[in-house]
Amino acid sequence: MILAGIEPPAEFVHWWFASGFLVLGLLLFAEALVGSEVWGRRPWRRYLWPGFAFTMGVFMWPVSTFFTNSTIHMVAHSMWAQVLMFAGGAELGVARGKLHSQYWRLTSALGLAASGVALLVHEQNHWLFSRAAFLHHALGWTVLVAAAFPLAQALRPRSFTAAMGFASTFFAIAVLLYCDRDVAPIFGHLSFYAGILHR
Amino acid sequence: MSADVAHELRRKVERERVVARTRSARARILLALGPATSIGGLAWAVVQPWRLTLLHPFGQGFYWLLAEPPLYVVLVGILFRLLIVPGIVADLEEQR
User: Fold this and answer.
1) By a Cβ cutoff of 8 Å, what residues of chain B touch chain A?
2) ipTM entry
3) How far is CA B90 from the centre of its chain?
4) Would you say A104 and A156 are in contact if contact means Cβ atoms under 8 Å apart?
């Protein structure tokens, strides 16, 4: 009861994570633009985005514990925590030189695909039920389709298009998460069952 | 024979010029990325000023004052430009 009183609304947490994805997008975009040789000239830079993704995964655990109001929500958020930590950890291993295969990029593809499926499965309502429902569907399909980019990177590590696509995915996730509101209409539609519109 | 060498040299110089131009363009894009992000945040703040509760702070709760998403975007752009970009551009220029 006390916790419910002090915890921020879910939409705020979505905006904080949106900022995290925006940072990830900028880092990946910069790396794609200059190439991995220039990017890796300063060793700390190689750890930046994998470390950031891993940290976001760690912060996703309290979200799955305190901000979920159903089992399926908790499972979905826990899955995102796991895939963020798994993909971030694998990329950290590659950056450190402990892991060598280019196919470790498949962990990011797996992460995006699993995240997309989790988003689509755990949204029980139709697209125009509310803005949150719409964004779950939009995010799910975006992330699921975007899994093709890291998959392409695993097969062709120097592909500029795949690297830019991967970076752009995080910009798209950030924009969609920034659009989230707890209860708000989408294109003028808001179901009677969605709850009371608050801002 | 010497004409071939001259042509080859000219082609090489031309190629190097193209590469240099491309790299400069990359540096320019990189330098513009942070400010462009911040401008995006500012544009959002102008379009939806009610998202900035700092502009009308009275009666707002702690989290409503903490959550200023357009300012987050501006801040991310500024930090990226100041902390990340200078080193990358320096390495890019060094490679030239």
Assistant:
1) 26, 29-30, 33-34, 37, 50, 63, 66-67, 69, 72-73, 76, 80, 84-85, 87-88, 91-92, 94-95
2) 0.90
3) 14
4) no
Encoded tokens for B7: 């042509």
Nearest-CA neighbor of A105 among A93, A118, A114, A115? A93
For residue A120, CA distances in Å to A62, A68, B33 come to 22, 16, 32
Mutation target to probe the A interface, by most A beta carbons within 10 A, among B23, B71, B80, B83 is B80
**Cα torsion for B14, B20, B22, B28, to the nearest 10°?**
-150
What is this structure's pTM? 0.89
- For residue B11, the enclosing domain spans 2-95
Reported as a single tens digit per residue, the pLDDT across A7-65 is 788 889 999 999 999 999 999 999 999 999 999 999 999 999 999 999 999 999 999 98
Helix axes A160-178, A10-34, angle to 10 degrees: 160
What is the total count of domains within chain B? 1
Query: Alpha-carbon distance A63 to B32, whole Å?
Result: 34
**pLDDT tens by residue, A48-107:** 999 999 999 999 999 998 877 789 989 999 999 999 999 999 999 999 999 999 999 999
| Structure tokens that stand for B70 in this block | 């357009």
